[in-house]
Amino acid sequence: MSASRIQSHRRNLLRLLGAGAATHMLPFGIGRAAAADKLVVGVIYVGPRDDFGYNQAQAQAVAVIKKLPGVKVIEEEKVPETVAVQKTMEAMINQDKATLIFATSFGYFDPHVLKMAEKYPNVRFAHCGGLWTEGKHPKNVGSFFGYIDECQYLNGIAAASASKGKKLGFIAAKPIPQVLRNINAFLLGARSVDPKATVRVIFTGDWSLPVKEAEAANSLIDQGVDVLTCHVDSPKVIVETAERRGAFSCGYHASQAKLAPKGYLTGAEWDWQTPYTQIIKATIEGKPMVNFLRGGLKDGFVKPSPFGPAVSAEARKKSDAVKAAMMKGDFPIFKGPLVDNTGKTVVAAGKVLGQQDPLLEGMNYLLDGVIGQI
Amino acid sequence: MSDGGDSLAFGSLALALLGGALRVSTPFLFVSLGECITEKSGRINLGLEGILVLGAMSGYGVSLASGSPWLGVLAAGLCGLMMGLLHGGLCSLAKVNDIAVGISLMLFGTGLAFFLGKPLIQPQAPMLPSLELGAWSDSAQLQSALRINVLLPLGLLLALLLHWGFRASRWGLALRLVGDNAAAARALGYPVVPIRIGATAAGGFLAGVGGAFLSLYYPGSWNEGLSSGQGLMAVALVIFARWNPLRCALAALLFGAAGALGPALQSQGITAGYYLFNAAPYVLTLALMAASWTPGRSLAGAPGELSLTQR
């Protein structure tokens, strides 16, 4: 008993010392050199690492950074987007001495990552998908993301080319800006093939709900939809259901081609190793945190899946031409005039939103041609 | 939209709900029938959610390893049986509360399934075959709505059998007696504890089979988010069905249809309030519980020994 009291005294003393030290310290770099000679990187996933989807795409990049010299990686899977992720981050920081944390799920950002970043100014937090704002958010937080809507546009081209009735289906988890941007890009891609194409959206309400996703796929196909794509954490169930029902599918996050050898057209895949290595390099070299890191096809952040057998030669040609333009960086997806599905003009005629435009990261509408409601 | 369009949409919504009911209800049906047997004996097993998930995992694993989905179903059932035995055995010890054991069993079952199921997320196991009951129709939607799994008719048959058995068979009467009045059962020479353990094990078996349906037929994949509380809802459903197997079957179909409501409406372009429709099964659970529960009076049909209904 007395021993534990001494311990708690000592802990308080350390806390005091730590707080004193922190106020004198510069935000980055200095504390690290003393901590360990290896950079400890913590990675937090919202689901299992081999989910054929979102988490798998992150884990593939983590497998690459594990091989980097001077880097030690610790991982935790299935951490919910609640206060649980704060506990995980604190454990990684205090017990494993992690000084760089990759928080890979969208809902981790606000308030969890922001709160931890204020509490631990010497730790860097790299978040996937959050909208980091200069002046509003701590300097030791960075957000990285890819313009995967470019690949969704290519998905839309392949989907509308393969569809007979030009009725496409999109199964989405939640109506957040990234998801809406993907749905809209998918529609615009489809409409570049057939201006009458429509996209029906079903929101399931959460990132991983297999029964509801299967139900959504079945009801869309029952309504005459013949190409499905999605934005959920694991597209496995949706792609498998489409294949069983004889419908086409476009993948997301990672390649699901293996799951649907007949109907898989193409897919929008992440290539996260590019941002991961950039952020780790900056940390090791003691450069300031990369606060805002974005990239598309041409930067190697995203890539399309190879075409499946059901994609016609014509569709391949069209898709490849658009891809080439995107690789050169002169293919803005969202250019006015664009009207949303309530009739409001959202991008005025003549206005062109470049891929980097922060307006796009706050997207809160579904374009005309999308059947669905936020 | 014109009137003709509306009635067409309504017909196709009804069809979508029917299809959803037939696709989604099977796990509810098996778990609730299992729980019905267990509760008839005077025990309650809240751990069926854990058994469902464990059954889904083990069924998927065995189907993958053996190449036979039916072996997977059997393995899932046996896993459930073991878990049921564990629950039944633990609850037979003095001063053990069956609700607390059930909750720990639920956490144990899901935890074990997630732990052992890690390598099963990626591979594709052979699936259970489906019966094409809609082959006579030209309508693709009707065909797909009536494409069911053989476990569903088996479950419905089982419901009939249990309904008859609880009333008319010797084992059914013994089970009910044990559940209604343990002292009377003991006086008549029935072994109360073994019957209860047996009933819990049988309930576990059925819940395991329900889990195998999830992973081996619909949605047909092993994933940690697979169940989303279906095992727990099935327990509530038994109370709503007043411990009657036929009403369990009806309630399972109703819950299946409620689960299909959200996606079905959205796919037809009725998109307002989808959060509400997606929550339909849960709202239904709450509403039914509230409607069927009268304070101060035990439920009609409730087994007398059930800890849940005792004051």
From TrEMBL, chain A:
Pfam families assigned to the protein according to its UniProt record, in alphabetical order: Bmp (PF02608)
Domain spans labelled ABC transporter substrate-binding protein PnrA-like: 39-319
InterPro entries linked to this entry: ABC-Purine-Binding, PnrA-like, TAT_signal
CDD domains found in the cross-reference section: PBP1_BMP-like (cd19963)
This protein's GO CC annotations: plasma membrane
Keywords: Signal
Protein name: BMP family ABC transporter substrate-binding protein
Automatic annotation (TrEMBL), chain B:
Membrane topology category: Multi-pass membrane protein
Single GO term (MF): transmembrane transporter activity
Annotated GO CC locations: plasma membrane
Keywords: Cell membrane, Membrane, Transmembrane, Transmembrane helix
Localisation: Cell membrane
Ribosomal protein found in the keyword field: no
Pfam families assigned: BPD_transp_2
PANTHER family the record matches: ABC TRANSPORTER PERMEASE PROTEIN (PTHR43370:SF2), SUGAR ABC TRANSPORTER INTEGRAL MEMBRANE PROTEIN-RELATED (PTHR43370)
Region forming the signal peptide: none
Transmembrane segments: 12-34, 46-64, 70-87, 99-121, 146-166, 197-219, 248-266, 272-291
Source organism (scientific name): Zoogloea dura
Main location: membrane
Name of the molecule in the record: ABC transporter permease
